[in-house]
UniProtKB/TrEMBL annotation:
It holds the Pfam family LysR_substrate. Belongs to the LysR transcriptional regulatory family. The gene is syrM1. It comes from the Bacteria. Residues 7-64 form the HTH lysR-type domain. InterPro entries: LysR-type_TF (IPR050389), LysR_HTH_N (IPR000847), LysR_subst-bd (IPR005119), WH-like_DNA-bd_sf (IPR036388), WH_DNA-bd_sf (IPR036390). GO terms for molecular function: DNA binding; DNA-binding transcription factor activity. Keywords: DNA-binding, Transcription, Transcription regulation. The lineage of its organism: Bacteria, Pseudomonadati, Pseudomonadota, Betaproteobacteria, Neisseriales. The keyword Transferase does not apply. PROSITE patterns: HTH_LYSR. This is Symbiotic regulator homolog 1. Gene3D superfamilies: Periplasmic binding protein-like II, Winged helix-like DNA-binding domain superfamily/Winged helix DNA-binding domain.
Length: 297
């Protein structure tokens, strides 16, 4: 045989059974076919491999040397095909792969940090790469195969992307515990007069959700510092009169910072997990996404 397209895998299965039985009648019984049909299969095998494969002896048939050689290969081929058709079995403790997560500094602290600690216990051979996504299109990063998973707000996810909701986020007002207004009630007007520091997702921005809420009341605020690295905010707040409006999940991790509800309604956001089609059905990635969701509960 020189053309693999002419190979019938069912012939290989019959060939292996013939090798086991060395008897056409018994091989036919195992395959639940008639003896003439089994004889026909043997003839096809002989034509395919250009070898008699079996020769008659006193008590049945005996495989030729060529048949013995082919039989070893056929068994391995059938075993490999059977393995291909089996659903993959995931063993987290033996899982070795790299997971590339795109996320902002805020999400890296809130989600990625506990995720890494969890994976160190459950899947110690998994490597985690945390990659910044500020100012970049998430779908483009997926299409360029630069990330496997993205942890971003719903503003950066489109309906055609695979996605899962992680949690709803709201904002709190943060300031130093030594701030003169740390324990004072804030009105919307007083709030708008405070000097602010803010986190800018794309960098260089001086307005955001807080400004939209104030403008709806006919008020404006003054943002004195715009940062695109949220981890700098704690020290900035502790050492100055600046205040900030921060995601509650992040603000609650900050030391020596006073938190209180803002005196205005500021629209929050939903934190999402999104991934590319190429990992949608991958068992390892499905398990890792489940761990991410559990971390966020």
């Amino acid at each position: 045989m020189t053309d693999i397209r002419k190979l019938d895998l069912n012939l290989l299965k019959a060939f292996v059974i013939l090798l086991d039985e060395c008897n056409v009648s018994r091989a036919a019984q195992r395959l639940s076919i008639t003896q003439p049909a089994m004889s026909g299969i043997l003839n096809r095998l002989r034509e395919s491999f250009h070898d008699p494969l079996f020769v008659r002896v006193q008590h049945g048939m005996q495989p030729t040397d060529r048949a013995v050689q082919l039989g070893q290969i056929a068994r391995q081929v059938l075993q490999d095909i059977t393995s291909m058709l089996q659903p993959p079995v995931l063993e987290p403790e033996n899982l070795a792969m790299t997971l590339r997560i795109g996320a902002t500094d805020y999400v890296q602290k809130i989600v990625a940090l506990p995720l890494i600690l969890r994976l160190r216990r459950l899947a110690p051979h998994v490597q985690i790469a945390l990659l910044p996504v500020q100012g970049q299109n998430i779908k483009t990063l997926f299409e360029q195969n630069k990330i496997d998973l993205a942890l971003v707000s719903h503003f950066h996810v489109t309906p055609d992307m695979h996605q899962q909701k992680l949690y709803d986020e709201h904002y709190v007002c943060a300031m130093s515990r030594e701030h003169p207004l740390a324990n004072a009630p804030l009105t919307a007007e007083r709030f708008s007069q405070l000097p602010f520091a803010m986190f800018s997702y794309n960098g260089g921005e001086f307005s955001g959700a807080t400004d939209l809420a104030l403008q709806a009341l006919g008020l404006n605020r003054k943002v004195m510092v715009s940062l695109n690295n949220i981890v700098l905010l704690p020290e900035l707040l502790q050492g100055s009169d600046l205040v900030a409006v921060l995601p509650a999940h992040f603000a609650q991790t900050l030391p020596n910072v006073h938190l209180q509800a803002p005196p205005i309604d500021i629209a929050g956001f939903t934190m999402m997990m999104t991934w590319h089609e190429r990992t949608q059905h991958d068992v390892a990635h499905q398990w890792l996404r489940q761990i991410v969701a559990e971390v966020c509960q």
